[in-house]
Amino acid sequence: MVNRTLTYTLTRTRGTLSFDSTTLEADKYMEQWPREGSTLLECIELRACTNLTITSSTEGTLDGRGGKWWGIPGIGYLRRQEHRPRLLKISDSKDVLVQHTFLKDSPYWSFLASAVTNLEVRYSRIEAWRMSHDSHSVVDLSAFNTDGFDMAGCDNVWIHDCSVWNQDDCFDVKDGTKNVLIERVKASGLGLTIGSISSNVSNITFRDAHMSNTVKGIYMKFRGAGTIADVLYENIVMDGPEQFAIWIGPAQQCDGCSVANLCSTDGGPCSLCWPDIPGTECNAPADAHYVNITLRNVTVNNPKKSAGVLLANATSPGVNIVFDGVVVNNPSSSPFGKDQYYCKNMQGIAIGGTSPVPPCFTDLTTNAKSVTGS
């Protein structure tokens, strides 16, 4: 059954919500879109639900027809910025299962779980792209803010056997979230992300992931003070990342910026234009703490830039950062040359077969040991 409508809001729902195909006519009614005050309602929002299952007999499609909301590449964002509805939001709920869903072309974030306890998402996918499903062109990337699976203020989350191809964060752990396992996934966009954070998150694991032609890969980002602690990225493979494969540092963003100040730090601590344009800045926030961060068995093949960025504030350096078998094959020399990493204020060690070793880490790799022993 195909249903065409504008928005759904369901409150205190339990049981099973099943659908096969729903086309949300979000592209036809942008100016008349329902609001609460000045805030646009989500396409579908489920509030205060318990023991809820969202499913389909095959693969249920929610098509947000986001193209018109994204607007003309390079111009549409200037008009609407982030004043767009999310495709699916679940809030203040517990014991939720989402399965066999396909979220397509959301006007804004595709999926947001907010203050959900005990969430499982499985056998589901998200796509948002204008022209290409093989790379992220400048035109495709103008579909800003089409986040994949986002979670904020959540506890006990398991996302598995899912895929995302979009133009922003793919699987994203946001503020106030803890106890998350994301595994057996495919992602291409701005990466396997924690952030941007201005609070505390802890006990986060990403494992068994493949990322083809992604923009960023492993992406951890602070926009303000807080703590990101007890994080593991394990068994991750990236092929041909288009920007930095590994970024642990400040958020590279300019929220709410106009074209005139797009390269500024008005909308985030690190300029979107850094380090490519001389004079731009990338500043790690004070009191932003990375603690107990491990990357294990990470393989990056043929990145189009240097290996990555590892940056903390001198007043709150990263503590116990471990690279165990992190291998970047055939990286570009641009922009960081032989160092490969822009690495500052990180108390880290490199072990196993890690190569190259970040220049501000202690080198305890097998290669270093063999050289020392020779």
Description:
With 374 residues, the chain is mostly beta strands. Helices cover 6% and strands 48% of the residues. The strands form 2 sheets. It has a 26-stranded parallel beta sheet that branches. Strand 5 and strand 6 (39-40) form a beta hairpin. It is globular. The model is unreliable at 1-6 (pLDDT under 50).
How would you briefly describe this protein structure?
The chain has 374 residues and is mainly beta.
Could you tell me the mean pLDDT? 91
Which regions are unreliable across 5 or more consecutive residues at pLDDT < 50?
1-6
| Strand residue percentage | over 45%
Net shape: globular
Helix content bin: under 10%
Number of strands: 28
Task: Return the structural class.
Answer: mainly beta
How many helical stretches?
4
Q: C-alpha Rg, in Å?
A: 20 Å
Query: First CA to last CA: what distance?
Result: 71 Å
Task: Give a short account of the largest sheet.
Answer: 26 strands, parallel
What are its keywords?
about 375 residues, mainly beta, 26-stranded parallel β-sheet, two-stranded antiparallel sheet, 4 helices, 28 strands, globular, disordered N terminus
